[in-house]
Amino acid sequence: INGQPTYRGRTWRDMRIEGLLMNSRMVQGIFDDLNPETRSRWAYPDTGRWDPERNTREFVAAMPDWRRHGLLAFTINLQGGSPEGYSREQPWHNSAIAEDGSLRPDYMRRLERILDRADELRMVVILGLFYFGQDQRLRDEAAVTRAVDNAADWVLEHGYTNVLIEVNNECNVGYDHAILRPDRVHELILRAKSRERGGRRLLAGTSYGGGTVPKENVVRASDFLLMHGNGVGDPRRIAEMVRAARGVPGYRPMPILFNEDDHFDFDKPMNNMVAAISEYASWGYFDPGQNNYRDGYQCPPVQWGINTDRKRAFFELLAEVTGE
Known about the structure:
6-stranded parallel β-sheet, 8 helices, alpha/beta, 14% strand, single chain, 324 residues
């Protein structure tokens, strides 16, 4: 960041921290619901209504505290994530991308406020483009490819140099469009990387569902590898996944990041976060919480502060690990 390795010179328990990108899943920073039938589900308890501008305003206000605890990156997504944490049916309509692949100006204005603040705080943003609960909002494959071009161009035109592209959240989970699934998603990674402004391009990759190691086509196309630890109860499996990823044909030295893991145990000497670090991989906190303006970082209305025992446990361990 700004020409310096992250966490410069830092080690913890004899493990190298310099060069890692510790992160958290904060995907609903620009959330809205365009479906009038479900919009009321996300109402703030004090006003009785949902307010996307308030959500982004409170997100931006919380960012300095995250950074003070050593958080250098967070994942946000143009189509968010499940506002109920985990869902079978997803009737709500949350997409910064319109059906033709164009970008919705109100969403992008909210994103701009977040990216500007991240830049001021020297934080990295992992920007997801698609989410499996919302990709059906795009009309066809041409709209999907257009959206990738539009999103990459938007980031480049705005001059952001602190943004990594995650083409889609968990490419191996239930996507409607074939190009967003594992066998073809590398086409979109390469497409995002091909967009240039003034000789500069974006770094790109994609993620898989919990416990899944990236496939060769994605490893070859990516600038970094993203994995998820959801469903992985044994920290030894987390370490195993990192070793396995480094063994995939096409791997060369590149960052490996977990950017979603709903396991905690931060008071124990070994947990998924420590296991990832032990293999020199970065780790990302995922706390889905509930729709109560208190718990977690995914179910609106979200309380973006460090306000619960679970959030404090993560951020306190993060501060210890990073020396912040």
